[in-house]
Every structure is written in structure tokens, then in C-alpha cells.
Amino acid sequence: MSTKNLSPVLKTSFVLLAILVLLGIVMPDGYQVWSEQLREVISDKFGWFYLLLVTSIVLLCGFFLVSPVGQIKLGEPNSVPEHSTISWIAMIFSAGMGIGLVFYGAAEPLSHYAISTVRATPGSQEALADAFRYTFFHWGIHAWAVYALIALALAYFGFRKKEKYLLSVTLKPLFGKKTNGILGKIVDTITVVATVIGVATTLGFGAAQINGGLNYLFGIPNNALVQVIIIIITTILFTISALSGLGKGVKILSNTNLILAVGLLAITIIIGPTVQIFNTLTDSIGLYISNFFRMSFSAGSFGQYNRDWINTWTIFYWAWWISWSPFVGVFIARISKGRSIRQFLSIVLLAPTVLSFLWFSTFGTLSTHVQSLGNVDLTQFPSEQTLFATFSQLPFGFIASVVAIILIVTFFITSADSATYVLAMLSDDGNLKPKNDLKIFWGVLLATIAIVLLLSGGLVALQNTLIIVAFPFSLIMVLIMVSLVIELLHEKDKMGLSITPTRYPKKDQPFKSYEE
């Protein structure tokens, strides 16, 4: 890879990330303290901003879904989807959640129920109800709306307007040709850095849980060295997969993930407390819907909720989804050509949300049920071992644990595989078929950053860095929202779209407000 041909975005991103890595290597203790302090400042002083931003994104996506702009196709009028709906959903789900679902599936509801509750006494029925409604809240429509906004903006400007496949071009309705200069480079650099940190954090979670499962089942030491080895091995695997191309490696792995996930889910429902699982699902959906806006806007100012808890959980999740949105958004956009905006938003918002609700109802009910029986105290296990400790109380628990480890590995590879493709594309001037040497470069750098942050403070350092990096990108998201509204409403007026159309307009072309 010749340095002469490297884009300014790649060079600047590399320098910023290199500084981060050096800080973690030279003064790991200082880095952990510094990152913790900065994270607390952002969470405490700007938590309200995250709550308002993410809820506004949900409302905006809902508006696009039901408004006339939903008829607009992401591509030419005669374009058709490149992937079947099932494969499309599988790739969206694998890239967007993956490791996180397996890591937190049993652990998060248990934690909210028995350890750190939002308001109720730990172990009470009220705490149990709060545990599931807040888990649904953290992993539901809000998360997918954040992804959908970025994906919609990129797919709309990339496939509809024929612009470069870069996040900076989505701001053209606001800044015009300035996005081709330094402003655009800054936006794209922040996008790359946020993507790297977001994915590196998830790789750290994945390595920790794979190690936790191997330790619980086979007695393999649970330490940083083993986790580093896991990251190195999986890096080799996902780099090989990335080189095979989007239509092969990622698609095959995503379909495999969906099969394994559905299989593990079905086995657990059958051998677990089946009726209780579906009762929990039904009750929790009702609690989620009835408390939707209350949770969305609750910052804990009036004492009805624990403000520190909201900062630790809700604000962390909103920052996580924001930092992951460039990667997941770019990836979802890339595989969504030919879909209408209404079809796109319907699937991206609802399909993964329903799967997530079923997943947490199943594994969360299982872990809280085992805890309530009193035969084993699951709270004594670290989060990465909670799922395996829960499975140990079931028939065929060992087999389920092995399947879970395989699923984590495939999710790990899929997420990193997709990320290397996206990063290579963003640093290759939006090229939809980026160079292989760029994929290798980003694969190695992702692994290096995950290892350094892991060694400099474990998962805490990873989480702190994620929240810090998400903040500047959240400001970009505000601009993207405004830009997208301007352009979609402009095109709606030009095409003469209405809420109840009798036919699709004959005059269909990618009108550009910023070139008229």
C-alpha cells in the first residue's frame, strides 16, 4: 500500500488512533483515570443531550415512515434489491447487535433485577418488571433508529443522488461544495475514528466472553493474555473473510449466525421455563409501550429514577449506538439498494427489535428464574460468564454453552469483517469495492487498538473511550437530521408525492436542492 495514494482521511485517522494507542501503551493507568474522568463529565453534563437526540431520531424515522417520502426508492426507479429479504435481515442483525446480544442476553436483565436497579429494591417483583422494560428500551427501536438514520442518509445520497459513498456528502444540502473540502474531511475523519473505537470495544467484549466461556467450561485461564490470543486468531479469520468480498464472506457468515441464533433460542425456549418466557415477553412489551416516552426523556432530575444508574446504563447505550452508527449505518446502506424508504425503515426498525425482544425475554427470564430459585447465585459471576453459569442449571446445558461460544465467534468475525469493509470504503474515497490492502490494514489496526485498550484498563477503558468518541459524532448526527429533512421534503415537493397517492409519479429523478 503506497503512502502516496493514501487519502487525507486515512492519514489523519491513523495519526489520531496512533496517539490513542501510544497513550494506552506508555501510561495505561493514567489513560484509565483520564478516560474515566472525561466519561463522567460527558455523561453528567450532556446526558440530557443524548436523551433528546436519540428520541428525536426515533420520532424523525417515524415521520419518514408514514409520510409521502416513504415512497421514494433508494436507487433508480427500476432498481431491485441485491439480497433476499431473509439474507438482508440476517446481515443487518449480525452487524448491528451480534456479540452484544449474547454478552448481555442473560446478564443485563439479571443485573437490573438483582444487583443494580433503576429504582426498586433488588430482587423484588417491581425490580423484575423494571429490568425487562429497560432492557427492551436499551436494545429496542431507539438503537435501530440511530442506525437507520445514518443508513438512510447514506443510501439516499449514495444510490439516489449518485454522490460519493461518504458521510460528508449527506451534509450537502446545508453546506454545498464546502463538503468537498476541509469540512468534509473532518466529518469523514470523525466517522472513521468513531467506527474504529466502537468496533474495538465490541471486539473486547467478544474476546472477554469467549474467554469466559472457555474458562467456565474447560478451565482455560481467564486473563488478558488469553483474550489477546483470541483477538489475534479471530483477526486472521475475519481478515480472510473480508478479502472474499461482501457477497460471499459476510453474507455466508450472517446466514450462519441467524441459523445458530435461532437454533440456540429455540433450544432454550423448549428446555427452559417456556410459559414464563412468553408471559415475560407479553408483559414486557406492554410495559415498554406504556412507559416509552417516560423512559425516553427521563434524566433522573426529580428523584423518580436513579440518575447515576441512567448515566451508567442508558447514556452508555446511547453513546454505544451512536459510535457504532457510522459502521452499521454504512454497512446497512450498502446492502439496501433498491428498497423504498418505507420498506427500509419498516424492516430496519422492527425486525431486529422483535428478535431482540424475544432474545432477552428468553435468556433474561432464564437467568432471573435460576437466580430466584436460590440454587446458585448468578450475581457472583462476571457478566461474560453469566450465560454459561445459567446454562449449567439446565439439561443439555453443556451443549448449549458450546453452541453459544461458536455463535459468539461467528458474530465476532461477522462484525469485524463488516467493519474492515466499511473502514476500507470510507478511507478509499467512498469506493464501494475498496482495495484489499486497506481491508488488511484496518483489520490489523482494529485488533491492535482492541488489545491495547484491553491491556490498559480492560472493558472499563473500552467503555470510557467509546462514550468520549461518540460525543463529537453525535453533533454530526444533528446536522445529518436537518440535511435529510431538507432534501427529502424538497424531493417530495418536486415529485408531487402525497400521503394517499393513486400511482407512483411518472417524473422520478434524483432532484438535488443544492444544485438548483
TrEMBL record:
Membrane topology per record: Multi-pass membrane protein
Matching Pfam families: BCCT (PF02028)
Q: In the UniProt record, does the keyword RNA-binding occur?
A: no
List residues traversing the bilayer. Answer: 47-66, 86-107, 136-159, 180-205, 225-246, 258-278, 315-332, 344-363, 396-419, 440-460, 466-489
Give the superkingdom in one word. Bacteria
Which GO terms of the molecular function aspect are on file? transmembrane transporter activity
Q: Name one GO cellular component term.
A: plasma membrane
State where it is primarily located: membrane
Q: Read off the InterPro entries from this record.
A: BCCT_transptr
Keywords of the record, alphabetical order, are:
Cell membrane, Membrane, Transmembrane, Transmembrane helix, Transport
Q: Where in the cell is it found?
A: Cell membrane
Name the PANTHER family for this protein. HIGH-AFFINITY CHOLINE TRANSPORT PROTEIN, HIGH-AFFINITY CHOLINE TRANSPORT PROTEIN-RELATED
Q: Which family does it belong to?
A: Belongs to the BCCT transporter (TC 2.A.15) family.
Its protein name is BCCT family transporter
Q: Which organism is it from?
A: Streptococcus salivarius
